[in-house]
Amino acid sequence: MASGTLTIRARPLRIAFLVDPKDRHALLRAIEASTFLWGGTCNPIIPVYTRTPRTWEPQRIRRLPQPEEIITGYIDAFDPDLIVPVGLCESREFQVGHREIIKINELIGDIAETHTPQFGLGFLEVLADFVDKEFKFKRNDDLTLMFPKLPKTHGLFLASVFGKLPAQAEQVIDRYYGKHLEVKFPQPTLDNFVELLEPLNVFPRRLTSWSLEHQPLREPQLFFCNANNPLDIIDYWNLRAAGYYVVPIPIQISGLETVKKFARDFIEENYRPYRHNPNMFNRTIIQKSRTVSEDDVKTFCDSLNISLGENKQEPKYSLRWWYPRLWDAWARENTQEGVEKPYAHKVDIQIADDQERLELRSYDPKIKSFQEYSGEPRFANDFSFRFYDSKEPMAEVFPESSRELSSAIGIGYRNWRFSNSGPIFLAYNEQDLIFLELPRAESVMIEWLRELGWKVSLSPSGRMAAQLVKQLGGISGIWWLGHKGLIELLAELEKESGMPRPAVIGRLNQMKTKHGLDFDSEIILERLIKTSAMKLGAKIQCPVCTRHNWYELDALNYQTDCRFCLSNFDVPVQSPKNIEWTYRAHGPFASSVSQGAFSVLLVLKFLKGNFTSDNKVTPLFSYTAKKDEHELEADLTCLYSPSNWRVSSPQIVHAECKSFNGFEIADIDRMDFLAREFPGSVLIFATLKETLSSAEIISIKKMVESQRSKRLLGQVNSPVIILTGTELFSPRGAPECWQGKGGALNKFSDNRIGWEDLFSIADATQQLYLGLPSWHEFTEAEWNKKRDTK
């Protein structure tokens, strides 16, 4: 059925706490709960406002994000499994997608009774495993286990630095470990806390990351903040949870010489050349919090008296005046202001071609102790599929959805959660049993649309496209159709008389020479025969009506019937020269049957990229769907995930595909309806022609201008891509497909546009085929209009 790889990552449960920054007690409870959970240092604390403060983004050009947008943005960024409102937030209602909301008391449970939390693995389990592995033998270093005794003064800030356990947990630790371990109990204060941040000092907050893989290195940061401000404490916590290597420097102690020395040493230690480019250096970021002034940051930096270093063009530190926009999808996808999600370990499982289902056991954390069964999830396994060769489209990208989608991949309803990153198995026990059906794209997409209220019916052309993929041996086989000359050849091969072998080879050679292609015509012919794109048969003249008949090889006999006059005659075996052997297009490859399906498959090829691409696509071919009184139709709908360094959510893509005929008003209206029903989805108008008519340009341009206006206002909008034969028949994708085409096409061929970036492709093709200005030029013109009217 399909071969590929299933990657499973074992990780802690991810839990997001919703806290009103004014509620200091709730913030402390959230820190205590996170400290008691394995992976707790990576759990975000999401600030909940009734009104967004102006300090949130003081340099914001347009409007501030609404409180609901901040909450949704943080949830999308960290992708938690559970949501826990705390304190004042417990009485409020929140839109959190398909995640479960629980109370903080339900999360932790009765520690004194069970020593473990209700959800996730607890601190005592982690501590037992740490002690067993790290202190089993006498150490020759200064690794120190410490439980700081936090003071009331600045206690909230210090709790965010060192962690703070619930009182019941501290009592259990004293009872079981106090007499058997060499544990230190320092008393940190704001003035001396930096002295305890040595790498070999293991305190509760650091212990929550025990056995997790090291996260990718980011530029080290000194977070200049106000230790009395809850928002700064939350921001510091979330930077660390997002994977930043960050150390706080409170403004209250920024004048102390010990703090300055710590900052200087930190900057000097992290100033080193890149491994592969000795002329570039790693540097420290001095990150300004939202509540301190730029002047205060500059004063502190000047007081450090940092030397310029060996390379004066590469300073040892740089200042960042804005807080990383973790809640902003655009910033996460287009900058390095994203979130790294930790895991304990991963395993790759090879999927054999003849497998249709897998029977697995959950991959457990590398932590020995599971003390109690709580009846709730203890840890998670993230699933990621990659299929290399499949007879039908398989699901590699999954939508965020409810547990109902589990019907498309297996059994175990309560164990599954579906996020934008893929299926997540929530394990309740060690070695939980997992029954998994290999996910078919069609099943996943239909179930997802059904959950959205749409009842889907595949159209005949959709079934034909699926059959073509099957005949081609999978999506990778679509590349064999990626030549205009080949589709034209299939159209000619549909003729009654067919085409003899020398003529077929001649046409393939012409195509090869004309387009500068690198292939062997004999191999292409063999491929077309093996995929049943064409069949060999005999062209024989009827002796009665003198018309020529064509008979497929397995239908030929010594006697046969004429399909024109219905007479029965002997095949001229005594004179084989009167039999001409020719090839004809066969089945779904007949142009009159599948030319529309060809354009659908070529759009899918464009999205998948070249042979070395790692883009992922989950397609659903031509279909209609009904919901209440509404009906929609699309030639192709798919979930798309690009292969690049950006952290991005899957994109919904809808395509209206034509062969060599034009787009009509009804096609534009259908796509406009899809844009309204699926806000933010990408729309593709695809045709095998190389140009659009003036009527097509006018109709599509009107739609594009409407979507651009929405984007300018910061509203949800749908980028529009126009693909012609130039892009669809190219084996290289954009921008390489425009090389040597002349005019505006040639201009774009030198641009550094990654064709996996659908927003850039939309901008480029709107300029090429609609004559519109670039998005940058458009926005500049609009802002100039506004300035002129003031």
Structure, explained:
With 790 residues, this protein is of the alpha/beta class. Among the domains are: 106 residues, no CATH class; 95 residues, no CATH class; 191 residues, Trna Endonuclease, Chain: A, domain 1. It has 24 helices and 30 strands. The strands form 8 sheets. The chain has a 6-stranded mixed β-sheet, sandwiched between helices. Strands 13-1-15-17-16 form a 5-stranded antiparallel β-sheet, with no helix packed on it. Strands 3-2-4-5 form a 4-stranded parallel β-sheet, with helices on both faces. α6 runs parallel beside α9, α15 runs antiparallel to α18 and α16 crosses α17. 39% of the residues are buried. The model has no long low-confidence stretch (mean pLDDT 87).
Biggest sheet features = 6 strands, mixed
Helix coverage percent: 25-40%
CATH fold assignment of the domain at 599-789: Trna Endonuclease, Chain: A, domain 1
- End-to-end span in angstroms? 65 Å
Number of helical segments with 4 or more residues: 24
Taken as a percent bin, the fraction of beta residues is 15-25%
Over the alpha carbons, how many angstroms does the gyration radius reach?
Answer: 32 Å
Number of strands: 30
Principal-axes geometry comes out as elongated
What topology, given as strand order, has the largest sheet? 19-26-27-28-29-30
Mean pLDDT: 87
- The CATH C-level name of the domain at 599-789 is Alpha Beta
What structural class is derived from the secondary structure elements?
Answer: alpha/beta
Contiguous low-pLDDT stretches (5 residues minimum) are: none
Please tell me the CATH architecture of the domain at 599-789 by its name: 3-Layer(aba) Sandwich
